[in-house]
């Protein structure tokens, strides 16, 4: 009987110790998260801080993102040098090409098309205007609105820049068949649609 009573006492002491330890952990966690106002449980914190070891660490070159970045850096880097040699930046080239297909547009239209902020668009337009590649006109319907269009100089430049883009594509993807190129573009477009990507790359 004394032995059984002793075991019960030990179990009670153990339980009290666990409860006491749990309370201490809870208090420490409240103190640690006081500034952020977030209360985390001990189990959630432990789970978040311990990385999963169920599978080996993946190799750097086992990720598609690694190869996409690898190729993109070289493709975009070479093209960037080409257009800069022609006097414009990549962001300006993108804006020029979009406006080239429009009879007239507005800064708001371009902002929506590129998925950029008003400040970023204003900076691009100011640079193009300074280079005499863009003209602005106050709307007759709304004096607060502006209409933008390409100058003759810009309209002559855009086809030349487009040729540079074609040559760049041919250099890096010329070994691929037309179907392979179509499939590659299609797969990229599916990723864009799946993740709701809207901002056109300009850098």
What descriptors fit this protein?
single chain; 203 residues; mainly alpha; two-stranded antiparallel ribbon; 8 helices; 65% helix
What would you say this structure looks like, in words?
Mean pLDDT is 80; it is low at 1-43. A two-stranded antiparallel sheet has the order 1-2. The longest helix has 31 residues, at 2-32. The protein folds into two domains: 2-43, no CATH class; 61-194, Winged helix-like DNA-binding domain superfamily/Winged helix DNA-binding domain (Arc Repressor Mutant, subunit A), CATH 1.10.10.10. A hairpin with a 7-residue loop joins strand 1 and strand 2 (146-150). The chain has helices at 2-32, 42-49, 64-85, 90-100, 107-114, 118-130, 152-173, 178-194, and strands spanning 134-138, 146-150. Helix 3 (64-85) runs antiparallel to helix 7 (152-173), helix 4 packs across helix 7 (152-173) and helix 5 (107-114) crosses helix 6 (118-130). It is mostly helical.
Task: Kindly report the name of the CATH homologous superfamily of the largest domain.
Answer: Winged helix-like DNA-binding domain superfamily/Winged helix DNA-binding domain
Q: Radius of gyration, rounded?
A: 30 Å
Please count the helical segments: 8
Sheet with the most strands? 2 strands, antiparallel
The CATH class of the largest domain is identified as Mainly Alpha
CATH topology of the largest domain: Arc Repressor Mutant, subunit A
Beta fraction of the residues?
under 5%
- How many distinct folded domains? 2
* Shape assignment: globular
How many strand units?
2
What is the chain-wise order of helices and strands? HHHHHHEEHH
CATH architecture of the largest domain: Orthogonal Bundle
Structural class: mainly alpha
């Amino acid at each position: 009987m004394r032995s059984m009573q002793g075991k019960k006492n030990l179990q009670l002491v153990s339980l009290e110790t666990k409860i006491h330890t749990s309370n201490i952990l809870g208090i420490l966690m409240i103190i640690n998260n006081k500034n952020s106002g977030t209360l985390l449980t001990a189990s959630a914190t432990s789970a978040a801080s311990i990385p999963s070891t169920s599978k080996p660490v993946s190799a750097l070159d086992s990720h598609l993102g690694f190869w996409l970045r690898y190729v993109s850096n070289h493709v975009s880097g070479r093209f960037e040098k080409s257009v800069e040699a022609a006097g414009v930046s990549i962001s300006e080239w993108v804006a020029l090409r979009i406006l080239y297909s429009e009879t007239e547009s507005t800064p708001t239209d371009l902002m929506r098309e590129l998925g950029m902020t008003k400040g970023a668009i204003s900076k691009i337009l100011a640079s193009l205007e300074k280079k005499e590649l863009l003209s602005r006109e106050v709307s007759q319907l709304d004096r607060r609105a502006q209409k933008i269009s390409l100058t003759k100089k810009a309209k002559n430049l855009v086809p030349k820049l487009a040729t540079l883009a074609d040559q760049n594509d041919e250099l890096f993807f010329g070994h691929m068949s037309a179907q392979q190129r179509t499939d590659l573009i299609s797969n990229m477009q599916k990723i864009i649609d799946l993740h709701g990507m809207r901002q056109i790359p300009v850098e």
